[in-house]
Amino acid sequence: MSNPVVKSFWDKPTGSWQYVFHDPETMKGAIVDPVLGYDPLAGAIDTVRADEILAYVRLAGIEVVWILDTHPHADHFSAAPYLKERLGAPTAIGEHVPKVQRLWKGIYNLGGDFRTDGSQWDRLLKDGEIFHLGNLPVTVFFSPGHTMASITYVARDAAFVHDTLMMPDSGSSRADFPGGNSRELYRSIRRILELPSNTRLFVGHDYAPNGRAPLCEATVESHIASNRHFAGLPMEDDFVKVRDERDATLPLPKLMLAALQVNIRGGRLPEPESNGLSYLKIPIGYFESRSCNG
Ligand SMILES: [Fe+2]
Fold first, then answer.
1. How far apart are the CA of 71 and the centre of ligand 1, in A?
2. pTM (whole model) above 0.70
3. C-alpha 147 – ligand 1 centre gap (Å)
């Protein structure tokens, strides 16, 4: 009955947290939310972060049996296919990912050959489903709000809560992307905070505010005590007001329009054209500009 060993990796350009967690009894593990680097100015991708993860699992002797995403990310490309190619492990995401694919298929006006059935992943996970890393059970919580398909992975005293809560001094994640919903986010967070008080919650992002070091982990107890948006467990309407007002001031993520078209393909670039290059497509005029506020 060992708790998982968790190793975190921060991607500074996007403030994203990636994780490897494993069962110390059997050394079987999973990767959560790996990042593929993307430089929009050069149109270049890199595998620096994913290669760090590969080096770690090899050195630690971890057998990776799952490559997991919590949701289709809006601020970075997923490195899941790259890691699958090297490790042979299957990929998974939440079962509601087809809803996100249908939504963005419309925004990008993708052709009929773009599949919106989630078949770009090896497995679509349902709420309440349990899978194992060796002797370690991992339970799936459907936790929408930030996206329509977000899920949380709960493994004994650790939970990978992605973009629901952020660190206590930052509060919660935004709920204003297409398909986002602050009421759903509230309910998802309330469910996470019903986990035992010593559960370690590992967040999806940290932007190291006020010059502090980047952090990724806080217990349920510390979120209830001091989370900027959730201390003392606010009422739904109060949270929704704070969240929606805050979201109205935030610019869209710099990489959103690039990232979603890769991530709804399971982290793959669009099919190469006749010259062998892939191209990204940017809709003009679909989103209002919110670039003046921070
Ligand atoms: Fe996200």
1. 7
2. yes
3. 7
